Amino acid sequence: MEDLTELKQIWASMPDRSVPDFRSISLEVKKYRTRNIIKKTTVLLFVIILGFLMGRVVIVYESQLISTRIGEGLMIIAIGIMLSYTIRSLRRLAAVTDLSNEGFLKLLKDEQLSLFRFEKRTQVIGYIAASFGLLLYLYEGVKEKTEHLVIGYTLTLAWITIIWFIVKPRVMKKKMDHLHERIENLERISQQLKH
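^ that's the sequence the OP posted. Answer follows.
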């Protein structure tokens, strides 16, 4: 973070004060990195707890149907996918040492690309595994009564649909828009510094 001295000198010599001052940019870089590390660490802890709980269910619950075990396996796969993605993201953030203007811009672009890949591939695979796992897991508990089966699967499918078609697109759009706005601002500032 201290590699910003050249940027600070350029910033100080800028006649146009419509661009933000160096300290605010430097503070934004530090806040962004710290905030993302905290968010990703929180997600990592949540996923680890979820993994332990699912592991306990697999060990303690004596299922009678193979569909239940397949469902548990699919949910564990989804947890594993989320765990590996979160660890990779944390490693990428921790490895960043060059947080100059160009370094921060590169970090944001890498983050945007990673988020795009996550949305289009990783999240899809994980969500499909978790959804099918949940549907298979529930079968043993609701198979005895038709009303329970209908109500259980209707509510579960409604939940899956709401998450997939309403919540997920809104959250991803918000994240992508926020990253895009930050990238545009930094590119604009970089262009002003070059002239």
